[in-house]
Specification:
Largest sheet: 8 strands, mixed
Radius of gyration: 22 Å
Order of helices and strands: EHEHHEEHEEEEEEHEHHHEEEEEHEEHH
Number of helices: 11
Bound molecules: flavin-adenine dinucleotide
CATH superfamily of the largest domain: FAD/NAD(P)-binding domain
Strand content: 15-25%
Number of strands: 18
Structural class: alpha/beta
CATH class of the largest domain: Alpha Beta
CATH topology of the largest domain: FAD/NAD(P)-binding domain
């Protein structure tokens, strides 16, 4: 076993990368004392593939939500872009172009030398003790660290409806790891889902010349953000934090999230495509999917039947606690406290155990409905920096 690191971060997504930058840049942790474990061939690989698949041109969140330390870093960085690109920020709320955001992420990774700290592997087991943690990797390597950050996100658990078989090459989830279900020639495609990603995937397919059905259980719901910005500050967080009942916190999170919603620009584009008869919209529920020799048939609750060559699920991510067996066994082994929904009960420093910190979905009973987002990564970074300085 190698010498213990100060910090090991499991997960090299938006959260893991931002937290690494904060520990190195704000706390002064030495780079040789920190590592990030993630199975991707590069940091942020899941972010890049999921966002690229949707075809989104701009982020939903504003320009102050990014991975660097200084809140104005992305806007300053954009100055180099202004002469090159037209719509680098989309109104309202100055939402950055995805390409700009990604280049800025590259800058953060480069500034802090994070690629060199990336261990391309999967953590399979964590054991915690008073002095630190031991993490076993899938390659058999073991890493010891004084502190562990679980920044594992939900992107490895796409939500599969029960009626959708998992092993058919033409029935795929757009967010499954290694997604390769995009049509290469003109096809009839049924997209399932009612939120921003389903809308963007449908628009991208239309743009590429496919015949597209979009099936959503509900009418288009318009919200600029996926939760009210009041959840980023005291307006709503004060009463959330004073709530001691974690079932009630979970209810507040569910009520606050505008699940299955689209921002006004996507709403307008979808509305136009529907009105012009380009996008075939079905506010309906799928009852079953038949695989026939000559294609797929999606049967809806209203008895409509949609014949298609491909079904793409854009149904988001499943809600059980992320982390699978690795986190399940850590919970059992270290008797870590969980609410009835299965999610961690942590202190204000996001400590689940004196040596284990969490961010993203795992921190949402402490950070509230925005915990999974980029803003949530920044909030988690604030809490960890304070904890690191205090220790
Ligand atoms: C299409 C899309 C667009 C979005 N747009 C926005 C937006 O505009 N603004 C916003 O604020 N938010 C947005 N979000 C939400 C959120 O910011 C992203 O989902 C973000 O990528 C979450 O980051 P994360 O680090 O928590 O998780 P992930 O991106 O899931 O990264 C976690 C990483 O941990 C790895 N991992 C998991 N288990 C292990 C293990 N055992 N060992 C090692 N590694 C492991 C995973 O492979 C993954 O690489 C968007 C999400 C999607 C899907």
């Amino acid at each position: 076993m190698s010498v213990a690191l100060d910090w090991l971060i499991i997960g090299g997504g938006i959260h893991g990368v931002h937290i690494a930058a904060r520990l190195l840049g704000d706390v002064g942790v030495s780079p040789d004392r920190l590592r990030i474990v993630d199975p991707g061939d590069r940091l942020l690989a899941r972010w890049r593939t999921c966002t690229a698949t949707t075809g989104m041109s701009h982020l939903r969140s504003p320009a102050v939500h990014h991975l660097d330390l200084d809140p104005w870093s992305l806007e300053d960085f954009a100055d180099q872009w202004r002469s090159r690109e037209r719509e680098i920020f989309a109104p309202p709320y100055n939402r950055p172009a995805l390409a700009l955001f990604n280049e800025h992420c590259d800058k953060v990774v480069e500034t802090f030398g994070l690629a060199d700290l990336h261990i391309q592997d999967r953590a399979t087991r964590c054991a915690v003790g008073c002095d630190g943690v031991n993490v076993q990797l899938s390659t058999g390597r073991e890493i010891a660290a004084q502190n562990l950050v679980l920044a594992i996100g939900a992107s490895e658990q796409p939500e599969w409806p029960d009626w959708a078989p998992r092993n058919h090459p033409r029935i795929r989830h757009v967010f499954e790891p290694k997604f390769d279900g995009w049509p290469s020639s003109n096809e009839t495609v049924v997209v399932i889902g009612g939120g921003i990603s389903a809308g963007q995937v449908a628009l991208r397919l239309l743009d590429e010349g496919h015949l597209v059905h979009l099936v959503s259980r509900h009418a288009l719901r318009q919200h600029q953000f996926d939760s009210d910005p009041g959840w980023l500050g005291p307006k709503f967080m004060e009463s959330f934090s004073s709530e001691r009942d974690f079932d009630r916190r979970r209810t507040l999170i569910i009520q606050a999230r505008h699940k299955g919603s689209v921002p006004p620009d996507v709403r307008r584009a979808l509305g136009r495509a529907i009105d012009e008869g380009q996008l075939l919209w079905h506010e309906d529920e799928v009852e079953k999917l038949d695989v026939r020799r000559d294609g797929l048939v999606v049967s809806l609750a209203t008895h409509a039947e949609l014949e298609a060559e491909r079904v793409l699920l854009a149904t988001g991510f499943a809600s059980p606690r992320p982390g699978g067996r690795m986190v399940d066994s850590l919970v059992a082994w270290a008797s870590l406290p969980c609410a009835r929904c299965g999610y961690p009960i942590v202190d204000s420093a996001l400590r689940w155990h004196p040596r284990v910190y969490v961010s993203g979905p795992l921190a949402e009973l402490e950070l509230g409905p925005a915990s999974r987002n980029i803003a949530g990564a920044r909030r988690a970074g604030d809490r960890l920096v304070d904890a690191a300085w205090a220790s």
